[in-house]
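Hello,

I think I submitted the magnesium ion job twice by accident. Can you confirm which output corresponds to this input? Input:
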Amino acid sequence: MLDSIATVSLSGTLREKLEAIADAGFTAAEIFENDFVASDLSAVDLRLLMMDLGLRNVVYQPFRDFEGLSGDARIRAFDRAERKFDLMQAMGTDLLLVCSSTLEVASGDHARIVADFRELGERAATRGLCIAYEALAWGRYVNDHRVVARIVQQVGLPSVGMVLDSFHSLSRKIPVSSLENIDPQSIFLVQMADAPIMDMDLLQWSRHFRCMPLQGGLPVTEWVAALMQIGYQGPLSLEIFNDRFRAGLSKTIAVDGRRSLIALRDDASRLLGEDGMLPPRPPVELTFVEFSAAQDAEGVVEGMLQAIGLRKVGRHRHRAVDLWQGSENTHVVVNRESHSLAGSFGLMHGQGICAIGVRVPNRADAAQRAKALGMSILEDPADNLSRRAIPAVRTVGGSLVYFLDDDALDGLWQREFEIEMTHFSPVAGGSLFFDHLATIVRYDEFLSWLLFWTSLFDLRACQEVDLIDPGGVVQSQALENNDGSLRLTLNGALGTRTLASRFERHFLGSGYQHLALRTDDIFACAIRMKRAGLPILVIARNYYDDLQARFGLDDAFVARLAAHNILYDRDAGGGEFFQVFSRAIDRIFFFEIVQRENSYNGYGAANTQVRLTAQRRAGYASNTDWFPI
Ligand code: MG
Ligand code: MG
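Support: Only one job matched these inputs. Its output is below.
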């Protein structure tokens, strides 16, 4: 299958789009009519440019409202088509996409539609051109690929075939099994788009929310597997209308497009029980986070770690790097080396998390998968903690993810660090474990982050939720592995006055905004933090009155929550969640301590407006009273 993408999927001018498409490794593209009409490239210029870029022009599209007309309107439709044939011959494509009519005046009579396509197909064939008919989900009479398949069969010309568009079919819940009965020779083009599951007008859903495979919730993998099974071998072409993509960088979106198609084909072949084309998505768990602290002369990061209840357990044998632990398997690295990746990261972004380490079954396989997905791999970053080669991949925001397997982890900490404790024992108040990492992502990079994680690792994307910040709405989506040992949240705001957008400005891009650590005893932890003098985010009293009313909690319990500024949530299954927040370092980074009881699986979304408002009140813009160290 040829990898293709429609120019409408990207931002930029037609030339910029095509260059980005070629750079990302596509070998084909669809020319969207509006992109061509607005371009200063002539049809011949376009042909030469695409030849230079090594791109095949798979289709010119769309040709609208053609079939079922009569009288003058029918004559004009054919004249219009002839003009497009001229253009197609000059630009070097042999396929015209005709989408089903939305016109009220058109007829839905199949015999007439068949006659129209027979005549169009005959005219096209005299020029060596072909016609591909597509059922728009909102077509007036034809809105189902099964109907198009019947029409194409009745036309019975080799120059007339069909377009399958995953969005048009799957948005209407047409069963994937319907592909089994289609002759693959009659499929001239397959267009791929995913979409988040939404209950909305089909046209609006399609125009604004289409996304790439693995970024949405439609059964696109099953769809491609069914196409593979019937032996379809033509182009697989992304056709995506998405507001974020229109605002994004064409190069990034094109790279994402290739990534999604590579992962999609691999997933589909596995679904068919075949070997995949790349190493499988590894199961993954978080083993360490690394703070960049080269500019942290006052030791704010370490001061906070200590106050929260992590324990400094060792110092790197050769570098200015300290090792902290919250539990036996919860490692936090504080890197104060200026001449290092962490140091450069800190200069650019400030103090915060510059890398994480994840445990995978095989680090070389994980790196190979990342590479095959077009990710930027550092085979052995010069300042990695270990003397063993530990590959790392660069995230969308530039931080690193190290791949560690049991071989790399075996004795890693003891070998590299002077460890003062032989057996880790937690401080009073108990151990701390990784719970989740919250990422602030740029609005137009939201789906890039989502694709990065879901194409690389075995993670589940949870339902997206809207969070209310006093400065605007923030879209938030969680990604989790099976047992909850890796949880990430992506948060992106469209406006510029939210906490998330202020993070972006101060941090200069996307990155981790807070680390949530889990305790088994939030009250003990809160007492410990208070004693250590850690500034805690102060929660409004009104919140606790409401909490009591909502959940019928007893007075003493609510008073304890309020005394420690602990937020509380309860789910339908009786799961309970507790959260307390530190104030922020440098207006950027803060910690959250959580406790989960009875399998509570969320992130306290119900409390987020209260928390964000408290952070705004705390004077997020002022840097003077953050941390008194
Ligand atoms: Mg389409
Ligand atoms: Mg959180």
